[in-house]
Amino acid sequence: ITGQATDVEYSGSLMEALRDDRVGGVIILVCQTAVLDFKKLAEAILKVIKDAKEKGFSKPVLVSMIGGKEAMDAMMMLEKNHIPTFSIPERAVYAYSQLVKYYFKIKRGR
Fold this sequence. Notes:
Elements: H1 7-19, E1 26-31, H2 38-54, E2 61-66, H3 69-80, E3 85-86, H4 89-107
Parallel strand pairs: 1-2, 2-3
Helix pairs in contact: 1-2, 2-3
């Protein structure tokens, strides 16, 4: 996705990633641009996750948004709907790495 992406492009990309068997989870990184509405994006993310779950696609989705008050408001909306959010991308990556470690630990039976 490029800096010209809107909530529509993010929605399509997220659904494709959730459908793809080769993808174990998704980290969405969003930076403020002139064409992006953070609130619309948060609403779109919630809709895609709901639609994907209804179709049997359930994977971890973590979101990192950078962009001031609008980004913080959108992240609060996501958090209220149990989507983990991070204001620093590295923290999202670290959190996902811990999910992966936990998955493999359980898989090995420890």
